[in-house]
Amino acid sequence: MRHLLLLVIALQVACDRGVSVTYRVSMTPAEADSISQLSVVISDAVAQQHAMAAQGATGDCSLASYYRQVGGGGDWLDFCVAREASAAVKFHIEAWRTGAWGSQGDALRLDLRDTLLTQFGARVTEAP
Asked: What does pTM read for this prediction?
């Protein structure tokens, strides 16, 4: 019975990975430190506005990471900010265990995008 439960959970996670978006802010090597610092300030403000818990910098999220559980079914949002060499800062949002953004994920995604475009303009690119 225990093996069956583990199999069901593994299949659910494998089949329902969720949705994600990545924004990148390009920069020159001379701007790397100031843009990285500003990126953390921006991500802190956006995450706080969306009631996300700060988790600090982690391996893949070298500048900052945030988390928020949404809904009652175990869905959650991850927000990761990382420096990519000296050429860009990556902002990555994932809505786990859902096939669509939902209102809270959509609000976070759009707020971050609008904030980055206002601050950095044409330096911002988006990848689904």
From this structure: 0.83
